[in-house]
Please model this.
Amino acid sequence: MKKTTLTVLLAALGAGQITPAVAESFPNAPITVVVPMAAGGPTDTAARAIQQAMGAALGQSVVIENKAGAAGLIAMNFVRRATPDGYTLGVASATTHAIAPNIYTESPYDSVKDFTFIGGLITAPGVLVVDKAVAPNCEMKAFLETLKASPEKYSYGSAGVGSLSHLNGARFLQATGTNMLHVPYRGLSNAMNDLYAGQVHAVFDNVSSAMTHIKSGKVCALAVQAPKRLESLPDVPTYAELNMEELNKPTWYGLVGPAGIPKERVEALNQALNKALASPEVVTLYERQGVAAAPGSADDFAKKVASERQMWADTTAEMNFEKFSVK
Model:
C-alpha cells in the first residue's frame, strides 16, 4: 500500500500535477509586514489596523516590523531582497514607489520590476491650506487671482525638498500657471507654524494632519484631493469640482513583496487584505484618521503604481528637479 501511494505521488510530480509550492499549505508561518516609518506614525497605524483582521483571514499571525530611515528606501530595499515566498511584505507608498525613482540619481531598487504588488491599503486625501489674507472668502478663484496679480510675492512651505508636499505644490503651480516661492522645512508642523505667522502663504498638507488647523478657523482650506467631498470638511470642494481634475490625486499606501511571489500566494494575500479592509473596525478606524480603505486587485494596484511613477516623472522633469545622490 505504501509503495502504491509513493508511486502515485511520483507520477503526479513527474506529470507536473503537484509542485512543492502548491502542495505546501500557505501560509504555514507568520507573515511579516515591514513598515518604512517609526512606530506610532500614520503609516504604522494604517498597517497595524489590518494586522488582526488580515491574520484571521490567513489563519496566521501578521507581525509588524518597523524599519525607518532614508525616506523608506531602507525598508523597501530589505523587502526587495527577501525570499519571494509571500512571508515578507512591505508597506509601499507614493513616496517610496512613485516619487523616489524620480528624485534620486540611483535608487537601490526598481519600484516596479523589483516587487510583487499585493494590493492597495489606504488613500489619504491632501488639502491646500492658505493664509486667509490671500484667499478672500476662502475661495480658490480669489487665491489664484491673488497669485497672478503678484507672481513674485507669495510662498508655500513644505516638509522638505523632494517631499510629497513640495511636489504637490509644484504640480499645482504647473497646472494653474501661477508662481510661488518654495520654502522647505524640517517637517510640515514647522511650515504650518509659519503659515500662522504669515511667513509663508500656503501649505499642501494631508487632511489628517491639517484638520486641527482648519477647524481652528485661522486658515482656509481651498480644495481636497478626494473622489467626493469629505464628511469632515463638507464645505471644501474637491479639485475635480474646481475643474482641476489632474490635481485630484490623493496619496496612497499598499502592500508589496519581493518580485517573484507565486501567483496563488499573491491571490491569497490579496483576498485576506481586502477582507481585512472591509471589516467594520478597520473602516471606522481609518475614518477617524481621515483616510479611506483602498481595496482592489493586485493588478490594479500595480497599474496605479506605474501610472503615478510616470506622473511624478513628468512633474520633476518640468520643474528641472535636481536629483539627490544616494550615499
Q: What stands out?
A: The radius of gyration is 23 Å. The longest helix spans residues 298-318.
